[in-house]
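Hi,

I'm pasting everything inline rather than attaching a file, because the server keeps stripping attachments. The sequence lines come first, and each chain or strand is labelled.
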Amino acid sequence: MSERIVVVGFGPVAARLVDELLPAVRTGLVQLLVVGQETEAAYNRVMVAELGVGRTTAEALAMADAAELEANGVDVRLGVKVKRIDRARQNVVLSDGTAEHYDRLVFATGSRPVIPNLTGLNPDPSGPVLPAGVTTLRDLRDAAVLHSAVAEGKRVVVLGGGVLGLETALAASEEGARTTVVHNGPFPLGRSIDRGSGSVLTNSLRAGGVRMAGNARSTGVETAGPGGSFSALLLDDGSAIDGDLLVLSCGVRPRIELAEGCGLPTGAGILVDHHLRTYHEPHMFAIGDCAEVRCPDAACVNCRNASGPSGLVGPGWRQAEWLAEYLVVLARDGQAAADAFEPLPKEKPGVVVLKARGVNLAVAGDNQADPWDEELLEAGAASGRARRQISQWADPEHGRYVKMTTRGGVLEGLVAVGMPRTAAELVVLFERSAELPADRSLLLRLDGPDQLDAGATSNDPQRTVCRCAGVSAASIEDSVVEGCSTVGEVSKATRAGTGCGGCHEDIKGIIEKHFQAAAA
Amino acid sequence: MPNGADTHCPYCALQCAMTLTPAASEAGGTAAAPAPSAEPAKPAMTLEVSGRDFPTNRGGLCRKGWTSASLLHHNGRVTEPMLKGSDGVHQPISWDQALMLITSAVKETQQHYGNDAVGVFGGGGLTNEKAYLLGKFARLALRTSRIDYNGRFCMSSAAAAGNRAFGVDRGLPFPVTDLDTASVILMLGSNVAETMPPFVQHLQGARDAGGLIVVDPRRSATAAFTSDGGGLHLQPTPGTDLALLLGISHVVVHEGLADAEYIAANTSGYAAVVRSLSSFWPERVQSITGVPANLIRETARRLAQGARNGGSYILSGRGVEQHVDGTDTATAAINLSLLLGLPGSARSGYGTLTGQGNGQGGREHGQKADQLPGYRKITDPAARAHVAGVWGIDESLIPGPGLPAVELLKSLGQPDGVRCLFVHGANVVVSAPDTNAVVQGLRSLDFLVVCDFFMSETAAEADLVLPVTQWAEEEGTLTNLEGRVIRRRRALTPPPGVRSELWLMARLAEMLEAPSTFSDHPETVFEELRLASAGGLADYSGIDYAMLDRGEAAYWPYPVGSTGTPRLFADGFAHADGRAVMVPVTPSKRAVRSFADGSLALATGRLLEHYQSGAQTRRVSELLASQPQARLLIHPGTAATRGIADGDYATVTNERGEVLCRAELSNSVRPDTVFLPFHFPGQENANRLTEAATDPISGMPEFKTSRVWVRKAVSTQDLIPAGTRLPLHVKEAS
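And the predicted assembly:
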């Protein structure tokens, strides 16, 4: 009898898990039931803002196809909620009244947007009712709301200076909406970036047409628009920011009620060990936004600095891939083999690359230390471990800023604004824990105009003019001196220009130069 | 006696047309060709090379072609069968003795260990006739399934991807001159400016239109053509090409650039591919590849624009194919081309640039472990029946599938492995991955026979070296990178002790009492190949020598009664429903390996002056003088961190081996990557460091992303002892 795995939730992370389990479903090794609350199968939620500004289509976001999964033997229930979990009987009770048995259960319930405490909004997280003209940005319906506002060129107020808020505001602005970002603190993105990059970023966003309202504390929404819809965001200094649509982008909170409801330990998310197993229930697992990897062992080094779920999709996908392999080993070879399975590797701190066209930003790790912050630089530099080092480049006039925080030449933090190639290189170096060149300025020059053209012509007579035949300028000149006056004659005498022909202009130049000199 | 000939270059798959004419006497004035210095005074006729007009090269040749004739009378040439004595020194023996030795070695090995204990390793440089006969010889004369060839290291990934998507694998499914009018050409991991220079003519149109887009971790000579408005250079970190292609495809889908009408009419699998692309948005791909998101978008848009105006082509090369996920990477390139509606359309297309001289024909007629002539599958009962019919034998005499090259080499000397090996047209000691292990394998054999014209590094390992003809001494056909069958013609008589491989196989077949017939006459073999290929994917049945000698352009499939197929796919693809299959692919987890501890990615590749293992080009004094040694290309910043200056000796090491060579500092490589050419033997042999891990579908090894540590060579034992300062290959030629 094959094992039955129930996956609760059908977002992007669940979709990856299901994809990876599909071969085992086809061979009958496992049975799979996926329960998704939305009526659509999994789609790429990370790109909902792109959809909201009309830069892509819902079809292109799809990550799974329910009919195809069914055809492969997966039981897919869409538009259905898991109401509760009966651990004693190993049943999930569904909103359609049925109960389904599980041998293994995977929580992939994701997270939900935080509804801030503002007058005029119902803060009840389980069933927020938002007034017209106020939306979060999490699913296809939210995207549709944003899209109609952008398409009509309306005023969009984004509350929250996180990644999603900035991406939404910038894209909406580029697509024709008038947008304002309201955030607290002097610059957006909070503690993940430093003051220098925050300031350069703010200016770049402004240059991209986004109004930036920093150091703002919002207190309520005014709903004096048509039909009682949103008309302004009220701030604690008594001012108001007028708009037609308010996008709440105040972060997300893991959806853990189901796990809590059946008595599983939770922190910020559902607590799981390095095998993604919930505490005390080794046949229940959690992955993605709802999972908090922090093992019960208080002495575990890997968990010492563990924080809650990152809110990024990358770690969730890696968890899904790992768990699929683990579940297959478990089903095929039994518990002992599964126990021997290499645990999930520790995640590196997340990398954020702003999905935007007009502004380039990459940020990862810890960027708080400045080059002369002795205390921060020495932190963690005990017992032979190198101290942190900072290299920095700031050119606010041209919207460029880079900071590299390294230890032993390897990045622990990076932030780059307005330098796309540098940002791309730094992120790759960070992801691979690769050593930076000692001369860090090499990494800053990648975006320089001099990098575009390595093929500047030189006057060195020994330079190779014809690569194909390996003929130097000097040999060509010699042949011209000896009487060759056309490219054809030079080719015949020296073989230059007899391969790809790309140097014909060059040869012509040498001939002309010779005769000009002779005439002069 | 032959007296010069119109033929083609002995080297790469562009097969530049050339004319060989007997040279005027020594006093021949200012003739461009410097006399081959290695050959002081021999009475034999020397040949002069000149370019000949032909669509692929338009009269152009590169240095390799210009100097190719100097090898015909090279003093290092093997001209008699050479048997290795107990002292390890090769001594000449007669052909009769050689044939007897081989026959008894084969019989003895097979008596003790079974038929599959004898193996054959072929090459993509062999003529169609030799490649065809080698497959037949292995299966009927040696009665073994163990045959494969070095094309496994070359075209196997592109071939597997092409077969999967289109149902057929012809490198370029269109004449190369079609590229001339393209406004956008995307070159994926192909450095034609060095590997086949005359090809560059066909990129000129795209360069003029600003539409040459080159993907290469190195600013190669080809990538440098994108300067000055020629186009774009995308420089992904090695091993991430697949993710890059998914990113470009993602943009095509999400920005509505796909050709919906074409997709609906000509492909299957679209929806699944779209779903697989959803998670590869440009910024995520940037994090994996190091290519900025805006360049990824720009590339997608230019390709789409080109497809609507003037034409867009996507061409892939070994750079993206020689990976453990090479088949999937080539598939990603094909998917991109299908999304854009390129394959089979009048002014656009997808293709892969075949490398070896007969890399195309060599992969069609039975040299592969799983293949019978005409690109047939050896496991297909109908294919077996057809070929058995042509050979006039019972179908049961044809063995089943054997082992792909890397597995074949791993099996050398192992229990149940190969104990007696024939090598034809390959230099595995230099060109196979993990060469230290390959050498061990060769040394554990009971008997090794190598056919070559020089004492190559592999020949040096052989018990018996058999001298065979060079290109200018033989007749035959090759199939160039376009799938066009061309004639190789004899321009001079080979030295007396030298035989053709056809002759060798025919004699041995006779002595081994093989069924069927084995002719040593090229045209007769080709006539048989025609019949054997008839009805297969690579159908040559309508082609004959007379037609080729008239200069007709013969592109396969060319069934009897047809006029051949210059352009494939005009009337659909080679699957039963006529549609191209889009297969969703994703990067292997290997793509995100750690490069902590100061390790770097090693990519291997080619230099303009050398061809393959360098067994030929390292013996051409002019080429060797220009590139006498392997040099490690390293970024100045990376070198500075390691205290390495330009020209210093450096060691490159990993768990498989060590290379010692000079360093060349260059901005053309990424700081996280070093580059080594693979043309050199011994301590400069790049393949000491490459891994014999293979693509699960094609059997292609991982050549382009080895993890290595680089340091300055300091200890005295690192340095080459005085007196042997020059590597052996340098000494021989100088």
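The CA atoms of residues 26 and 185 of chain A lie 53 Å apart.

If the labels don't parse on your end, tell me and I'll reformat.
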